[in-house]
């Protein structure tokens, strides 16, 4: 049994269609393949059983919680470098949306 946690991710957050879930899980969804090709990370999940699945593409900064890290720190130069790198790699993928900082609460289900 797990514990609640928070995923801190910089990049894009896309809602997945029901038909896309199996491909995301298998790692062969087109967005997952494109992200891996340019060196970006992906994370997919859902907020609860009643909410749709989502896919994040970019860089996971931290996973915070009792079963993960309990704190993290990044200095300004590291954050700036990371943001520029993610933006560059998303552009290589053909993504036009602007990346954002996402803090995703993950319930233990």
Care to describe what's here?
By secondary structure, the chain is α+β, with helices and mostly antiparallel strands. The protein contains three helices and four strands; from the N terminus they run βααββαβ. The protein has a four-stranded antiparallel beta sheet with strand order 2-3-1-4. A hairpin with a 6-residue loop joins strand 2 and strand 3. The mean pLDDT is 92.
Strand order of the largest sheet: 2-3-1-4
Given helix and strand content, the structural type is alpha+beta
- Number of β-strand runs: 4
Largest sheet: 4 strands, antiparallel
Give the distance, in angstroms, between the N- and C-terminal Cα atoms. 8 Å
Question: What is the number of helices?
Answer: 3
Uncertain stretches: none
Q: What overall form do the CA principal axes indicate? A: flat
Helix content: 25-40%
Determine Rg (CA atoms, Å): 14 Å
- Secondary-structure element pattern, one letter each: EHHEEHE
Mean pLDDT: 92
Strand content: 25-35%
Outline:
With 109 residues, the protein is α+β, with helices and mostly antiparallel strands. It contains three helices and four strands, in the order E-H-H-E-E-H-E. Strands 2-3-1-4 form a four-stranded antiparallel beta sheet.
Task: Give me the secondary-structure topology.
Elements: E1 5-15, H1 21-26, H2 30-38, E2 41-46, E3 53-64, H3 76-93, E4 100-106
Antiparallel strand pairs: 1-3, 1-4, 2-3
Keywords:
single chain, 109 residues, alpha+beta, 4 strands, 33% strand
């Amino acid at each position: 049994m797990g514990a609640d946690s928070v995923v801190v991710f910089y990049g894009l957050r896309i809602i997945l269609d029901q038909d896309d879930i199996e491909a995301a899980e298998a790692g062969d969804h087109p967005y997952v393949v494109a992200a891996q090709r340019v060196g970006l990370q992906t994370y997919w999940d859902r907020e609860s059983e009643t909410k749709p699945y989502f896919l994040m593409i970019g860089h996971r900064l931290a996973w915070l919680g009792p079963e993960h890290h309990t704190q993290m720190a990044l200095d300004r130069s590291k954050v700036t470098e990371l943001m520029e790198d993610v933006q560059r790699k998303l552009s290589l993928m053909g993504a036009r949306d602007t990346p954002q900082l996402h803090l995703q609460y993950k319930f233990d289900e």
